[in-house]
Amino acid sequence: MNYPQIICIGEVLFDCLADQLGKELKDVISWTAYPGGAPANVACGLVKLGVSAAFLCCVGRDQAGDELIEILERMGVNLTGIQRHPTAPTRQVYVTRSQRGEGQFAGFGNIKSEEFADTKLDDKQLGESLFSKGKYLVMGTLALAYEQSQQAIFKAIELAKKYQLKILIDVNWRPVFWENIEIAKPLITQILKEADFIKFSQEEANWLFETENPQKIAQKFPQAKGILVTLGEKGCHYYLGKNQGIVKGFSVKAIDTTGAGDSFVAGFLSQCCRYEDEILNNSEIAEQTIIYSNAVGALTSTKPGAIAGQPTQKEVEMWLKKMNKQKF
Questions:
Q1: Could you tell me which residues come within 8 angstroms of residue 59 by beta carbon, excluding any fewer than 6 positions away?
Q2: Crossing angle, helix 260-275 and helix 283-300, to 10 degrees?
Q3: pLDDT tens figures, 167-193
Q4: What class is the 6-322 domain?
Q5: Which of 57, 67, 92, 309 has the fewest CB atoms within 10 Å, i.e. is most exposed?
Q6: pTM for the structure as a whole
Q7: What distance in Å separates the CA atoms of residue 235 and residue 216, rounded to the nearest whole number?
Q8: Could you tell me if 59 and 85 are in contact, meaning their C-beta atoms sit under 8 angstroms apart?
Q9: Beta 226-230 vs 236-240: how paired, if at all?
């Protein structure tokens, strides 16, 4: 068995993107389905960037589940930890889009959020052997919204601690997934205390802590080695080790921003695997890591589909050379 460097856990689904830009849900005439789900996006992004990754999730025994597994297999993601639920359907999310291509989650059709297969992830079937030689565990917070998948997240953290994997948590706040929003903030804050690296969007940082300054947020999580606050097209404010700064984003013609933040995470982790603790100890490498991560996110947004739009390692490096932002 080839053990992956990075284990991603959470949801895989179809993002049904509105074909008509700038329309509200009721006015959308047609949709196009693209594979997505934040941790699945990260796993695929990593493989495209030359880093081995496994994905842990539960999908339905339905056509959508079959298609998603086929896509992940074709990408080269390790799927030994995939679970199939006999009755619960694979999740689909409807996403409206602004004139600029920015996505807005608009619901799940006629199925209740807690009825989808990803909420049924079983902590007893996570596959401990996958963790034994991994380097990083990556997760979002959507699985925390449901009792069974929440237990699987806690179990994965336990296994990561046992085998000394570093943990990256992308907050990925999506209110539409939560039946009880009141429990979300304390539960998310609690689990962030387990993370070595935390990634927020600007809005998420302000929602949780009323600041987007990563150094101030780091004071609340002394165990964390790095805090990343993405600023959309404006770039990223980072705090890595003792290195802090803001790296401006790249100006690109965005077609679809869905999954750009997940690609940023994949870019960041690929550089963590490459440079390891130098990201924390060397200010130049820290800055170059964020430049690289910004580039991966920006390039993803130039094509439709969170996974389909992801660049390869070679494409990122060639593009950065063209932009005179990094030497390889």
A1: 12, 65, 68, 69, 82, 83, 84, 85, 90, 117, 118
A2: 150
A3: 999 999 999 899 889 999 999 999 999
A4: alpha beta
A5: 67
A6: 0.92
A7: 19
A8: yes
A9: antiparallel
